[in-house]
Design goal:
The protein is of the alpha/beta class and 327 residues long. The chain is built from 10 helices and 12 strands. It has one domain: Rossmann fold, CATH 3.40.50. Strands 3-4-1-2-6-5-9-10-11-12 form a 10-stranded mixed sheet, sandwiched between helices. A two-stranded antiparallel ribbon has the order 7-8. Helix 1 crosses helix 10. It is globular and about 60 Å long. It starts with 10 loop residues before the first strand and ends in a 5-residue tail after the last helix. The N terminus is likely disordered.
Length: 327
């Protein structure tokens, strides 16, 4: 399966890097997709047996077509993994972006907990630390255009992208809904019903973790979209695109995505009629449909590839425009 459309200009390379955030004692393991020279040997790579492989050239050289490249930081959803955003990262790389995704400690596949999800405010700080390390890196720093950095993400990764441009995390509605007897069984409360919210500092959670280096945000089915108040998004002053799933089963469209869109009237809002919450994960294998049916569900069966193609095209156009990526 090709990672990009006919208009792609580059082969796709990918590699992994690790940065240490000593101040918070977090090791940030990343996946990097990037433009590689045309003719680089791209092959299939299996990230998970439940998802289809992605195509890229492992450890290929970064293309010399430009001295510096625009950068997009990319955040996975709750309990997900950086590598499973390859469908999106590879597409951007094929169109001239370096894309870096991180496994968020405490909230990634194989290393997650309810408390890790609730501590969502750690996520944007992961990217601030990552940017500090990447821009100082002897090999990668000189190749990144620090004036052209964007953020993208899915679900809690969508929150993360928005947080990097000024959104604040309002945990109070989550704490109330997921601990109240009448609503604690809501599907969005899975694994969160037994969190001791009295141990969570809601003021710390709701602080700003804006990073002024991030110039644009692209949020796919953004997490906790129905919890924002106007003051939580008042600091956003850069371009934003929201990609919403009309069939979102975890965060019903009318109460979540549309409510956030109303609070961000200057944002571009794209609604995918056939998409569900997990449409923004890779296409599923036969095993995936059997073993992880929830992750493979789309509002209209068989439409994930088309929804992702639309999303990827929107992302390329958005970041080319907002980061002036073709200059």
């Amino acid at each position: 399966m090709a990672p990009s459309g006919a208009a792609s200009a580059y082969a796709v390379g990918f590699t992994s890097l690790t940065f240490e955030d000593a101040a918070r004692q977090r090791s940030l393991k990343t996946v990097v997709w990037y433009p590689a020279p045309l003719g680089s040997r791209m092959v299939e790579h299996t990230a998970s047996p439940i998802f289809v492989p992605f195509v890229a050239a492992k450890d290929a050289p970064l293309s010399d077509a430009r001295e510096r490249w625009p950068l997009v930081v990319l955040s996975h959803g709750n309990g997900g993994a950086a590598i499973n955003m390859s469908w999106f990262g590879a597409h951007l790389a094929a169109h001239g972006f370096i894309v870096v995704s991180v496994d968020h400690p405490g909230n990634t596949y194989g290393d997650t907990s309810p408390e890790g999800y609730v501590r969502g405010w750690e996520r944007p700080q992961d990217f601030t630390a990552l940017l500090d390390g990447l821009l100082k890196d002897a090999a990668w720093g000189p190749r990144v255009d620090a004036a052209r950095i964007g953020a993208a993400g899915h679900s809690m990764g969508g929150y993360t992208a928005l947080a990097l441009v000024g959104a604040r995390l309002n945990l109070a509605p989550l704490a109330n809904r997921c601990s109240a007897p009448g609503t604690r069984e809501h599907p969005g409360c899975d694994e969160l019903r037994d969190v001791d919210y009295s141990r969570i500092d809601l003021a710390v959670a709701r602080a700003s973790y804006k990073d002024s280096r991030v110039r644009a945000a692209f949020a796919m089915a953004p997490g906790l979209a129905g919890t924002y108040e106007a003051r939580d998004v008042a600091d956003i002053d850069v371009p934003v695109t929201l990609v919403l799933a009309k069939g979102d089963e975890l965060m019903p469209h009318a109460q979540h995505g549309l409510q956030l869109a109303k609070l961000l009237p200057d944002a571009t809002t794209v609604t995918l009629d056939d998409a569900a919450h997990f449409t923004f994960l890779p296409e599923c294998t036969e095993l995936g449909f059997k073993a992880a049916a929830m992750l493979c569900r789309d509002a209209t069966p068989g439409t994930r590839a088309a929804s992702q193609a639309r999303t990827s095209a929107e992302a390329v156009a958005f970041f080319q425009r907002t980061l002036d990526a073709q200059r």
